[in-house]
Amino acid sequence: MTSKEIRSAFIEFFKQKQHQFVPSAPIVNKDDPTLMFTNAGMNQFKDFFLGNKPAPYSRAANSQKCLRVSGKHNDLEEVGLDTYHHTMFEMLGNWSFGDYFKQEAIAWAWELLTEVYKLPQDRLYASVFGGDEQDKLPVDQEAYDYWKGIIDEDRILLGSKADNFWEMGDTGPCGPCSEIHIDLRPQDEIDKTLGRKLVNQDHPLVVEIWNLVFMQFNRQASGDLHSLSAKHIDTGMGFERLAMAIQNKQSNYDTDVFSPLIELVSQKADVRYGDSRETDIAIRVIVDHIRAIAFTISDGQLPSNNKAGYVIRRILRRAVRYGYTFLEL
Ligand code: GLY
After folding, report:
1. 12 pLDDT exceeds 90?
2. pTM for this predicted structure
3. Same-domain status, 28 and 76
4. Which of 33, 77, 190, 321 has its CA 20 to 30 A from that of 116?
5. How far is it, in rounded angstroms, from Cα 205 to Cα 194?
6. In this structure, which residue's CA is closest to atom 3 in ligand 1?
7. How many CB atoms lie within 10 A of CB 202?
8. Among 11-15, 75-79, 164-168, which is the least confidently predicted range?
9. Residues with beta carbon inside 6 Å of ligand 1?
10. Which H or E run includes 186?
11. Does residue 142 sit in the same domain as residue 291?
């Protein structure tokens, strides 16, 4: 599948399950003082989760442009050095506003990954919230049991609050989550080390692809958790990582999302991608950042010397610095 086909298959799958397609919100967030940029697909639905506004539909699906370069979710310094983080990325998501909950979210995620995208079942792992003393929350046994009905128990892992409790920011809607990870290593490496040992260990080929969040709480500035008046589903799948898995690549940058840009920058710099670690990183930094800057500007935020504009200027500068230092551009 091409990346375009992957994106439309996602939307189609959820439309067939009565989800309303909702266009991506702008990447620049002007309405929410707790956020500079859209950092997750759920941002535009925050008021529905909190019960501040009634949702006009009970189920939604989309592909959201996200930027994770500031605040609670900030991947900037990793970008380019590794092969699977981005400043801007697309998040494929499906949502339930007080409608279906854990069972359907888990079953449909599995159906889409294994029956539509045909990802190999024996390469997939699920993690489940293992509880947290400070927040007085138990293990998410319910999610564990749903997974147990689908996959062997040795493919289900219990995770900490850091990995398995998703929060939009320091305050706001949040809840335990169940992540789906994929092991893309060659078989001989898998024979030596089991994939479950590498989940959440920053291995470039054992990566999280989808996060299913079970929205149940509103985090207060005091740190307390208040229960929401209804339970919701908020999922986020990394489109570029999914493309890597489906297109059987070892890097997001080797998919058709990025390869035309890689080719262009390599030509401009007269450097072959793959020739050296340093120039490869610089090429990845530039193609990632140029995409982020182009989309952010087109969504209304120019580089400037304060606030959101300064963040964009810093991304631009980082690209320039890598191009100048390593590619003689
Ligand atoms: N809101 C789900 C995620 O960003 O992973």
Report:
1. yes
2. 0.95
3. yes
4. 190
5. 13
6. 236
7. 10
8. 75-79
9. 40, 42, 166, 211, 213, 234, 236
10. none
11. no
